[in-house]
Structures are given as C-alpha cells and as structure tokens.
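Supplementary Note 3. Input sequence used for the single-chain structure prediction.
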Amino acid sequence: MKVLHYIPNFKKSMGQAARFVQMLQVVMGKTVETHIISGNISNADFCRRIEKLQPDVIHIHGCWSFKAAIVESWALRSRIPVVLSPHNGLSPKELQADFWKRKLPSLIAYQFLAIRKAMVLHTTSSQELEDIKQLGWKKRVALIPGPSNENEYPQTTETFRALYQKVIDTVQRNKLSEKEEKCIWTLLLAAINMRHASQDAEAKHVQNTTAAHSQAQEYPDMLQQLSVHNWKNIQVYAIDHGIMEELLSGAKALSLHLPIHVDALPARFKVKSTISDGHISDKEHGIIRGCTSSQETAALITDLLKLSKILEKNQYNKEWQPPFVLVMSIYERLMYSMYDEDIFCNMVRKLGMESFCAHVMHILSERLQLPLGYMPLDPISGKTARRLYRQLNEFNISKETT
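The predicted structure, written as discrete structure tokens, is reproduced below.
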C-alpha cells in the first residue's frame, strides 16, 4: 500500500498539517509506504513524482488551497481515491475569518466540491468532527487522533491502515488489471462450454463448442500465473457483478486450483446509486409478443432489451439478471438456441435496437469469441461499443456495505 500525503502549505515554521504528517510517517513505519509532497513544487515536478510513486491513496492535508483542489481533481480523473484532512480548517472560527473576501469565493469555486468528492474526511479531534457534522457537507467522516505517546503507535497505525484499505477497496470495486479482465472472460467462457458440452450431441454443436473453447486454451499460462492478490480481485469483482457461481464453474472446467476463496465483500464506504427503476413498457411487451411462434427468439430479444435499458438508460429492475449474466445468456442463446433470425431482425428493428445489438455483437466477438456466423447483425466497433463495455464493467447493484 502506497500513500501520498500532499501538503499544499508546507511552511518552514511547520504548521499543524506538516507536523501531523511527519508524525504519521514515523508512526506508520514499514506498515504503509508513506511519501510526502509539498505544494511548493511545480506542477511538472508533481507529475513526475506521481508517475514514479504510483500511489494507491492521496491524502490531502488542509483546506482553502486551490492547488489542493487541482490535485484532488487530477486524482479523481486518475481513479486514485482521496482522503482529506481539514486540520480544523472547517471550524466556525476559521470559516468566519476573512469570509466575504476569501472563504466565500473559495467555497463557490472549489472548496465545497473538494469536500464532497473526497472519499472520506479525516478529523483529529471530537470537536473537529462535531464542527464538520454541523456543516452537513459530508457524511463520511473518520475520527483518528494522533498518538499521544509511543504506546499508542500500533493502534494508530492499524486504524489508519484500515481506513486506507477501506478507501482502496471502495474505489477498486470495478477495477481489474488487463490480465485479470482477460482471465474473467476466459473463465466465463469455460463455464458456458462446460454447461453445454453434454447437451449438444449434434456434430455441428460439438464443433462450435470446440471452436469457442479456443479462448480458454489461449490463456492457460496466464491463469496458472495469477497471484493470490489477483484471485482475490477477480473473486471480489465476480461477487459484485453476480457471476461468482459462473467463475467457480469455469475454474472447475479448467481444473484450476484457487489459492484463495472469497466469500464476502470487503468493508467499503457507501456509494450513492444513480440507477433508476427499469421496466419493459406495454408497447415493448406487445412487440415481443409478436414473435410467439418462436419462444427462443422472444427470450433472446427480452435479454437484449433488458441489457439495453441497464447500459443505455441506466435503469435496473431487481427481478432482472445482472448485466454480466445477461451477456452470457445472450451469447448462449445465439450459439445454442434455435431462434428465428428473420423474426429477430424484424423485432429488433421495431424496437429501435439495431445499433445497440450490433455493438453487443462486437463485445461478444471480442470478449467471448462469438463466431461471425452466429451473429444475426454485423458487429459494430468504435466509441459506442467501448462506452457500453465500460458501463458493463462499472455497473453496480446496490449491496450492503459498512
């Protein structure tokens, strides 16, 4: 774990923030890799330091600094979580000082947003905690005072380490490395192949299953070389996206031994959900009922319609399957069901989903190696397909967090 402490106003006289950070650096010791950057350095030097350090968390100390607001904005764009310590900068006395000339313009320009967008505010005293609660600008506030003597060092170290880990686990919710991402799809494809291996006795289906299995054979070394940390990330991701059962099935199909089994999600801060309730309209139901002659076609279109509402309109119904499961279901229906392609194309056209379906075909081709011969529409790549894939990865179903 690497934590970068940024102090925008590091004065020679050693202010409260600077003293606290230097004390923290001593307390944390070797448990957490700690680095300090002063706001006195240039933007170019700051970027070089960041590129070299690659921190997991940026801890900003102090308020009312435009430089600090810029650093936080940059960190959020780079998906690096931010912990903000006001160091009594939000106390009534501090707020009232030079309010009209300096504080109010700063509040409007950047300070209010900086507080709202930080993952958590850290306070060093119960009074500071009460002052911040009175403002009501932020609900996620942690009280961790500095140790008063060396006997309190271990407890302070563990408390800060737990806070940083919770912050990292919250922001890492949808973040996988490229290698971990490829392995996820390989395991999902292996699960699908195993599910259908004993069901399709016809030669053409056996041949198709073998062709689809090629992706699993492409990454055997990558799967074998995954570390315990990699497997933990993959399993947490699978729990988040409702595909843990499929992941374990894929691992079993490939005879993989998992060095760790994750049964529960890590502690995280609560994150607001912007997902609205989704439903299939009467008009859409009517169009789907028009293909009653082919239940397989109706089921395929229904899955695609639900997926389009989740990814394009950010709508979700608790009775629907999670988007990753819908993608797997769509792949299986295209590969293994006897749907009517002409009816499918006609219904998709009536629903105005031709473009969306073509982009989904590209995702299925790229991630699950769906052959062109099994695509009712020609795949379309490009910016929209990348956006849909990103939304698929970032979709979150509300879960209880601590």
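Confidence is low (pLDDT under 50) at residues 201-213. The longest helix spans residues 178-197.
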